[in-house]
Design a protein that fits this description.
This protein is α/β, with parallel strands linked by helices and 495 residues long. The protein contains 17 helices and 19 strands. It has two domains: 211 residues, 3-Layer(aba) Sandwich (Rossmann fold); 266 residues, UDP-N-acetylmuramoyl-L-alanine:D-glutamate ligase, CATH 3.40.1190.20.
């Protein structure tokens, strides 16, 4: 489970500020650019040692300067090197202009971009860098389309052109890279939204002997080395120490969701578990999971009675949006116990028919549920996933876990974490019910809501990634045993 990338994720402006600090501290900007180009050259040469030719598509800023210097290094190494420029090099300023001059002196073939420009060998994307906001305009949009249609290996410098470094969104065409080399600090947009599907292999180069980072990263990337930790259990441990969970859900026809949540909570260490569900589900629960103390309930009064013994509530799996589900969610919202809300509980909240829990809680919406909660479109959510997660946490006063590849966990106080684990095979029903159970179990064992959501998201995503290696056909019920094993490998139960 070794992970060499830094944990800190930054905004484009934070990285620009650090770049400026380095220059102000005596490191010339051209030297930084040369280091970036050298790192890019090492990485692409390692990946394609026998390519022998590359063409750089260069824009008009420092990202283009990096590209010119890569071309110069390739030419000096005996490769064929050509730059197609989309911005007139005579308009380049500062270090980018000096980089262009070095490429000319090295004998690089530098030509203005045209619609029929041939692309050969490796394609180096040095078009836009981190400064892009909105969609790439022409001729950049057409050049990006040409890159993607070329079927050649593509290396992006700093980030794929067309990608928003802060949000992971792309308002227009976006380069699909095979390799991205990014510098100084990891940008949040590389890890969420459209970023993970377009970055390819990611190489990080700090460009300094002793990496320095701004005091406050915009987010923390979750990895084995920085996950929240559960305490090891003493030999005289007993079930009462690790949480009594109450799962509330399972309307007529959707009892399986509540069963899966219960099973996931048990597999991840819950001490005791009760389930309030429709009476018609009781037999199925007892047959599938006899460890669950199941109660068939008709009213909110019965739920309030069951909740008197509970430390943690998991509300929403298979709950439905009818009168029964509304009554149970409304009752749960009045309680002080820490809670996890998902699925129909969130839909009822978005519809305004129930209130948010008054105590500490975690919400786990997918983009559609998030859109309803914020009264915007799914497109709006995906256009700014980090901003959406923060707004959910701020507006509703709980920890918001916005699902999707590059899951984001936001605290109302501004903290944010990102989980980059997962697999396309997880695109199947029931996975959210498993996540709810995992988080509830971690809450019952003493983790605070933000920490439980972080560890839960990682266990859930990593379990899905490991199962996904087998390909399509992953079932949600496959996850709990794997999540249990991962938790034991990372954080053993016993000293």
């Amino acid at each position: 489970m070794h992970d060499e990338l830094p944990f800190q994720l930054y905004s484009a402006q934070q990285v620009r500020d650090l770049d400026a600090q380095l220059i102000a501290g005596g490191l010339p900007g051209l030297e930084l650019m040369r280091r970036a180009a050298a790192a890019a050259w090492r990485s692409l040469r390692h990946g394609w040692p026998h390519a022998g030719a590359l063409c750089v598509l260069a824009g008009g800023g420092n990202n283009a300067g990096d590209g010119y210097l890569v071309a110069a290094l390739a030419r000096k190494a005996g490769w064929q090197a050509r730059v197609w420029h989309l911005a007139d090099p005579t308009g380049l300023q500062g270090d980018a202009a000096l980089a262009h001059a070095e490429a000319l002196a090295a004998g690089v073939d530098i030509q203005p971009w045209r619609a029929d420009a041939p692309l050969e060998g490796l394609v180096v994307d040095a078009l836009l860098g981190t400064g892009l906001k909105g969609a790439a305009r022409e001729p950049y949009a057409a050049a990006i389309e040409r890159i993607n249609a070329s079927e050649l290996p593509v290396v992006s410098i700093d980030l794929p052109s067309g990608l928003d470094a802060d949000t992971g969104a792309a308002a227009g065409p976006l380069v699909r890279a095979d390799l991205t080399i990014t510098f100084i600090g990891l940008k949040l947009g590389l890890f969420t939204g459209k970023g993970p599907d377009h970055v390819g292999s990611l190489v990080f180069e700090p460009l300094m002997e002793e990496p320095q980072n701004p005091a406050h990263a915009t987010a923390q990337r979750l990895a084995p080395g920085n996950l929240p930790r559960l305490a090891r259990r003493p030999l005289n441990a007993h079930k009462g120490q690790y949480g009594h969970l109450l799962v509330i859900g399972g309307d007529e026809g959707t009892g399986g969701a509540a069963i899966m949540t219960s099973e996931a909570a048990l597999r991840c260490g819950a001490g005791m578990l009760s389930l309030a569900t429709r009476p018609s589900n009781v037999t199925a629960v007892l047959a599938r999971r006899p460890e669950v103390m199941v109660a068939g309930v008709h009213s909110s009064f019965a739920v309030l009675e069951l909740a008197k013994k509970a430390d943690v509530l998991a509300v929403g799996p298979g709950l439905g949006q009818g009168a029964w589900g509304k009554a149970l969610a409304s009752a749960a919202a009045t309680l002080d116990a820490v809670q996890v809300w998902d699925a129909d509980a969130l839909n009822l909240l978005a519809a305004g028919v129930v209130q948010a829990p008054r105590g500490p809680w975690v919400m786990t919406p997918h983009p559609g549920e998030a859109a309803r909660l914020l009264e915007v479109s799914i497109k709006d959510i995906e256009a700014d996933r980090p901003g959406s997660a923060r707004e959910l946490a701020r507006r509703y006063g709980g920890v918001a876990l916005l699902k999707g590849f590059g899951t984001l966990i936001a605290h109302p106080d501004g903290r944010m974490a990102l989980c980059g684990e997962g697999h396309p095979a997880m695109a199947t029903g029931g996975l959210g019910d498993i996540l709810t159970g995992i988080i509830a179990a971690l809450l019952g064992q003493g983790l605070a809501p933000f920490e439980a959501a972080c560890l839960g998201a990682w266990l859930h995503g990593r379990a899905g990634a490991e199962l996904g290696r087998q390909g399509r056909g992953l079932a949600a019920s496959d996850l709990p045993p794997v999540a249990r094993q991962l938790l034991e490998e990372l954080q053993p139960c016993l000293n």
